[in-house]
Amino acid sequence: MKLKTKDLLTLSELTQKEFVDLINYSIKLKKELKKGGTKPILKNKTLTMIFQKPSTRTRVSFEIGMYQLGGHTINLSSNDMQLSRGESIEDTAKTLSRYTDCIMARVYEHELLEKLSKHASVPVINGLSDSFHPCQILADFMTIKEKKGKLKGLKIAWIGDGNNVCNSMIYGAALTGIEMSIATPKGFEPNKTVVKESKKSTNIELTTDPFIATKNADVVVTDTHSSIHNSDPKRIKKFLPKYQVNFKLMSTAKKNAIFMHCLPAKREQEVTSSVIDGSQSVVWDEAENRLHSQKALLVALISA
Ligand code: CP
Ligand code: NVA
């Protein structure tokens, strides 16, 4: 499959059909891998990865995904690049485009990715910025489709920080007709523009009450109360004990609700061990699906 967009920075670049097609293609690639292997669709293609922030899942799943597709990855820490000595992102983009078929970058400021995408002639993928995490949401919606058999008509409850992952999930909800109820403390709401745009396509509710969010929810999602870009330990006090996913909160969602978390998790903060390690949790499938959904994305962006 092919996408119209050159880059994937937020998810808002995709049409509803493209998003759903990507999810279905991810599920197909997963089945193919389990049956015996992936076809070398990206033979001789290269992906260059730039990390300004730490990563376990994103780095490993992109690297192994490219390998399984017959391609190759180069992994760069921005500290080891001339970027750290002041070379501009524009010049970096132009240089890398002469070597590689695709760039994936994990950055602090989202604007840096926009500059990278503007000046790179090859596709640019957002591997997480302070504002968005689109690759996570491809994996999350793939997981929801696998577990629930459908997307449209479901309800997601987001509990905690209205952060980068939450912003991308709202775009995912708008692309699929999933309803979202988002419970955050005052001042920790998701991006206003993202909410406003997405409300045109689906029902997005903002509340400060986690129990309103989980009412009738099919999926309960949370993330750390302090992200890489805002790691002030004082933040946590604003969230606890109210914004913790525990058995009591889970029991107010639908009986067959699933629990999701992009990981890494802080057990006993945003989620109790009993929930994340319990029978409703699908976090390991979610982590695995990063591999399959990013393979689908890579094929859709860079195959001939
Ligand atoms: N969920 C996620 O992006 O994990 P990493 O930070 O380990 O890449
Ligand atoms: N919101 C988290 C996600 C980590 C994958 C962060 O930005 O640190």
From TrEMBL:
Range of residues in the leader sequence: none
Family annotation (InterPro entries): Asp/Orn_carbamoyltranf_P-bd, Asp/Orn_carbamoylTrfase, Asp/Orn_carbamoylTrfase_sf, Asp_carbamoyltransf_Asp/Orn-bd, Orn/put_carbamltrans, OTCase_ArgI
Annotated binding of carbamoyl phosphate, by residue: 55-58, 82, 106, 133-136, 262-263, 290
Keywords of this entry: Cytoplasm, Transferase
Pfam families per UniProt: OTCace, OTCace_N
The Aspartate/ornithine carbamoyltransferase Asp/Orn-binding domain, residue ranges: 152-300
EC primary class: transferase
Presence of the UniProt keyword DNA damage in the record: no
Predominant location category: cytoplasm
Top-rank taxon: Archaea
UniProt-listed GO biological process terms: citrulline biosynthetic process; L-arginine biosynthetic process via ornithine
Location in or out of the cell: Cytoplasm
Gene Ontology CC terms, in alphabetical order: cytoplasm
PROSITE patterns in alphabetical order: CARBAMOYLTRANSFERASE (PS00097)
Gene3D superfamilies the record matches: Aspartate/ornithine carbamoyltransferase
Binding site residues for L-ornithine: 164, 223, 227-228
Family: Belongs to the aspartate/ornithine carbamoyltransferase superfamily. OTCase family.
NCBIfam families, per database record: orni_carb_tr, PRK00779.1
Protein name per UniProt: Ornithine carbamoyltransferase
Organism: Marine Group I thaumarchaeote
